[in-house]
Amino acid sequence: MIAPPAFGLSSIWATHARFAPDRTAAICGDQRLSWGEFDRATSCVANALITMGVRHDDPVALVMTNSLAMLEVMFGIVRAGACMVPISGLLTPAQIATMMADSGARTVFVSPANRALVEAAALPAGTRRIAIGFAGEGWEAGDTLFSAAPETDPGVRNRPEDRFNIIYSSGTTGMPKGIVQSHGARAHFAWSNALELGMSGESVALVTTALYSNGTMFMVLPPLLLGATVVIMEQFSAGSALALIEQHRVTHAFMVPTQCIVTLDDPALGRHDLSSLKCLLSAGSSLRPDTRAAVIARITPHVYELYGFSEGFATMRKPGDAQPRPGAVGRPVIGFDLRIVGGDDRECARGEVGEIVGTGLGAMAGYHNRPDLDAAIVWRSPSGEAFLRSGDLGYVDEQGFLHIVDRKKDMILSGGFNIFPADLETVIGEHPDVQDVTVIGIPHSKWGETPLALVIPRGTPDPAVLLEWANARLARTQRLAALELRTEFPRNALGKVLKRELRAAWWDDAK
Predict the structure, then answer these.
(1) According to the model, what pLDDT value does residue 78 have?
(2) Angle, CA of 26, 31 and 35, to the nearest 5°
(3) Is the dihedral angle over the CA atoms 438, 443, 445, 448 positive or is it negative?
(4) How far is Cα 298 from Cα 263, in angstroms, rounded to an integer?
């Protein structure tokens, strides 16, 4: 029998360039990149890396800002058969150094905006620092390396089990947790989401979040798989996003809930033609019901909501699911399966709350160099199949739709009662003076812990009035001990509130 060829995403991208070289692959600002140019640029990056001595599966890092150059470097690394390690420019120099050391990366590509950050990091000895868009002592010029490299296909073919990337969890402190995703898992991510979101080769996808973030790949890998077009925002603003949707006739966009909220409050909303939108996907955290309703009414009725975790599992809620099951986050994305597991590690019955565990074709290969974490995250079914623990609490209804109750670690245990912050946030978020809200548990001498609401307001409401309004609508066991106004929340790359940082001030004092 003839062995099947190793035909992964890189090979598919090359095919798009061969048969439709003049079609637009990517746009950023006033720059455009055709499929032919994308093919040649990624080939140059790949060939330069190979010439530098980067071998198959070697980790290569990048600390870059959104641009066409970042797109070329990311997928040039992949095309070289190396393992891409994207690192956030929002981290500290110490965190960057820790991730570089943990991943084993000895080559890093850097944008001008992140130069000082990387220069301040104590990188492993012998690390090659490659400057993209600037020059300086101790830096190798990326333009020089690329111009000397051939534009031809490097001839590397990756197997499904080969490493595609290592993604580090947002807000990592101390010992990092690197999620290893294979070429097979990334291919599944691309085709499954392309199908679920209704993409085609004519789609135009808008990137509003940082390219180093795993969630951003919803608007990158599926359209590139299909030979479609990706529009990259250098930095998000609601007004600019609305203008780009109209200008480029964007069909698919991804916004985290925070971006949806600020877009609804932006005066530019209503001034642009958004009729081209066939899909607005939200993920990172759940949309509050009031926010979802406002997005449907004022931006587009084509709202998709995804629940999942980077380790490899997802469900999707589609527009047709909105009315009959308003609290659901959908059914599993194609190629995934889920179970609900109780405290005794046995599978729960329909409608019973427990921990969500998932498995499927997009599951991670494991945590990088952390077999202890691999063992801790796995739940095995009675038949021995491995599922990944989410740390989230939920249940499946009689129609097979998943409902999220809350994060297991965010649940508040007050006087023997389980309080789920999401329930309180839904109620508080209905007040017209509340732009965003998060609820955390803080120490209480009698009850153990008690709920505190932190609110980003519209205008200057009286916190005492808001507190009274909320408690009048909450059950006695749910009532807030206090409510405070904030101007912002600490968030990860996808806008999810980092509740552990908010809780730390109270619990550290209590200790």
Answers:
(1) 97
(2) 35
(3) positive
(4) 10
A 10 A CB-CB count for 270 gives 10
Return the pLDDT at 7: 72
Per-residue pLDDT of 260-295, as tens digits, reads 989 999 999 999 999 999 999 998 777 888 889 999
Neighbours of 393 (CB within 10 A): 22
Residue 269 DSSP symbol? T
As beta bridge partners, residue 417 has 414
Averaged pLDDT for residues 175-199:
94
Condensed to tens digits (0 to 9), the pLDDT of residues 300-319 reads 999 999 999 889 899 999 99
Give me the CATH topology for the region 311-406: Luciferase; domain 3 (2.30.38)
pTM: 0.85
User: 3.40.50.1820, 3.90.850.10, 3.40.1010.10, 3.30.300.30: which CATH number matches 411-510?
Assistant: 3.30.300.30
Helix (H) or strand (E) holding 354: strand 354-360
* 416 confidence band (pLDDT: 50, 70, 90): low
Q: How confident is the model at residue 125 (pLDDT cuts 50, 70, 90)?
A: confident
**422 Cβ contact partners less than 8 Å away, ≥ 6 residues apart:** 286, 404, 405, 406
What gap in Å lies between CA 448 and CA 481, rounded to an integer? 12
Strands 417-419 and 412-414: antiparallel
CA angle 136, 103, 409 (to 5 degrees): 120
Question: 225 with 253: CB under 8 angstroms?
Answer: no
The CATH code that applies to domain 9-166 is 3.40.50.980
Residues 6+ away with beta carbon under 8 Å from 9: 78, 183, 186, 187, 190, 221, 224, 225
Decide: 107 and 128 in contact? Cβ < 8 Å: yes
Report the chain's C-alpha Rg in angstroms: 23
Give the span between the Cα atoms of 147 and 135, in whole angstroms.
Answer: 15
**Matching residue, tokens 């999401």:** 422
Q: How far apart are CA 338 and CA 325, in angstroms?
A: 19
Question: pLDDT tens, 354-404?
Answer: 999 999 999 999 999 999 889 999 999 999 999 999 988 899 998 899 998
State which H helix or E strand residue 393 sits in: strand 386-396
pLDDT score at 196 = 97
Beta bridge partners of 130: 109, 140
